[in-house]
Every structure is written in structure tokens, then in C-alpha cells.
Amino acid sequence: MKRKFRLPNGVVCLLFILIIFGYLASVMGLSNMLNTMMHTAHDLLINTVFYIMAICVLTGALAKIFIDFGVVDLFQKLLRPIMKPLFNLPGVASLGAVMTFLSDNPAIISLAQDRKFAKYFKKYQLISLTNFGTAFGMGLIVIVFMIGQGYFLAPAIGLVGAMIGCIVSTRMMQFFICKDYPSFKDEDAITETHSHHTNADGVKVNDDEESSSDTGFVKVLNALLDGGKSGVGIGLAIIPGVLIISTFVMMITFGESTVTNADGTTVTAFTGAAYEGTRLLPWLASKIDFIFKWLFGFHAPELIAFPITALGAVGAALGLIPEFAQQGIIDGNAIAVFTAMGMCWSGYLSTHTAMLDSLGFRNLLSRAFISHFLGGIAAGVCAHWLFVGIVALAGL
User: Fold this and answer.
1) Which residue among 36, 194, 331, 350 has its CA within the 20 to 30 Å range from the CA of 226?
2) How far apart (Å, rounded) are the C-alpha atoms in residues 173 and 131?
């Protein structure tokens, strides 16, 4: 019996790397490719990662205040009737939606890692917070930016679309988790709600009991510092995902830089600056633009660059809109779809890995990616057809 010939794994890996970097270097030039890669990663670290870390510190502190002073319990009682049928989550999960809407995706992990918050969840529900929180990430920034472009109704429609996408993503993720780990459906995320530590006298103390003896000011101060400390850890955890994945996505999405010659004329060329790229993804999208026209109502293939870029960083995607407006290819429908998909995806390729890793379930990463990708598609499709329906009704 003949044995099938198989290339060694190391050879396959080298071929894969050579194809990717060979392609980038052939278009951009080797020196420009390396410079762009380093400059993009550095700019993402300084202007994106540290920004997100600052957000995580502030939201972590605020979340800890909400948890320690009863706001979480209040949310659980008030919003349980809504959260359960829509997202199959306890009412306190709405606090995570608020925190990520005001900041960014990783804020949900600040909550999920707090035992007092996690005690309301089954294990499969707690893991699905990765998808749930991401769908609202940077929502306020996205909506305010769209309003700043002169659109008001379209961002509101996009918000509804993002919520629909969130339902699809969260419930799909829960289905996958329960399929892979059936016991998680009935297993509490936290089996014991009391934690202990040893105080200065060497006595083991229950944290809840000790906090009750503190003054109000000390409790607030401890909550702020403890919550902020957890935010620093989250900020550090997302560095690899943001730098590696976002850099690659941007290098196959954007194009050359605009350079001004000595005679005042402008040309496009590769210079090795940050955020240059080969425009591979928009080119591929242009080959099947009829699909995007039907799904999202896009009338120009260039518009697909927004959701593609939002896969890695929605902040970078927002930077595309002024250029689209200048080219005259953007309209209210595109803004609604951009808002929905930008909020729902909000750079999940660069943050899901760190978020699931912090929960201890990196092995579910492929399930999270599939669920959230389909959730973002659902968000964009719903936003498009909602916009079409509302415009048609208004015309009547």
C-alpha cells in the first residue's frame, strides 16, 4: 500500500509565510512593506491600544462602583424581562452593554471577571458576553461621528440593526458553547460568591464582611483602584491581537499615500508610512459587488472597505468616511449600514482573542468568530432593509 506524500508542517508554514509577505513586498516593495508594518503597529500601540487601556481603566473603576454599591442588582431586577427573551442573558448583562457602548469591547471583561457580577450567569452565558459586549463596542463614538457627518435618522436605524446583529451573534455563540460543553448549560459561572484574603494581622477575612466595616469613602476609593487595576491587565492583554491582526487587515485594505511633488502636483506612491496597503480586499469585493449591492445597498465597491476595516478597528474604519463623502459615493443607507456593522463588529478580530483568553476559553475562538461574523452580516442587512422600508413609508 502506497503512502501519501505530505509536506512537513514546517515547509507548509514557510510556504504560507512566503506567499503572504512575497505578495505584499511585490506590490509595495520590501523596504516599504517592512516600514509600513512597523509604523502601523507602532501607531496602533500608541494611539489605539493605550487609548483602549485608558478606557478600560476608567470603565473598570466605574463598573466596580456599580457592582459594589448595588447598581448591578438594580439592573438585574429592572431589565431581566427584556434581556432574557432577547439575548438569553440575566438583566445585569445590560450593564455590560452600557459600558461597552460608552467605551470599547474589552470593558465587558472588566465586569465578567468580577465575581459579584458573574454570579448571576450560567457558564455558557458568561462566555457569550464576549460576543454580546462586542456588538455595542464604541457605539457612542460611532453614532456621534455619523451625526457629525450630517446624518441623524440613519445612525438610529443602524443602532437597531446592531442590536439585531447582537441577538444573532450572542445566541449562536451560546448554541456552540452548549453543543461543545453540554454541562455548561446548567453550571453556574461562579460556584462560590465569597472570596477571602489574609489581612495585616494574619487573619483570613471575608472580603464582603471586611468591606462592610469600611467607611463610605474608603469603599469608594478601594472600588475605584481595584477596578482600575483590572483595566490595566485587560489593556495589556489586547496588545497582541490589535497589533498583529489590525496591521495585517489594514495592509490589505488601504492603498498608497498621497505625496506632493516639488512642483505642487500630487501623486500616490508607497512611502513606508503607516496605514499604507495593497487594496486587495476592496479589489476582491469589486468582483462580487452585486452581492453587496443586494445585501447592503452599496452602489460603489469601495464602500466594502468600511466593514472590512471595522473587522480590525472601527476607529480606523470611521476615518474612511470623509474620503467616501468627498468622492460622492456615500448616502444615508450606507451610513445606516456602516453604523450597524461598525458597532456590531467593532474590531472583534483584534479583541476577541484576548477577551476569550482572559476568560480561559481561547479554544472557542473559532466559534466566536463565526457567530460574530454572521451577526455583523445580519446587522448590515437589517439596517439596509429597515432604511429602505422607512424611506418608502416616508415617501408615501
Assistant:
1) 350
2) 7
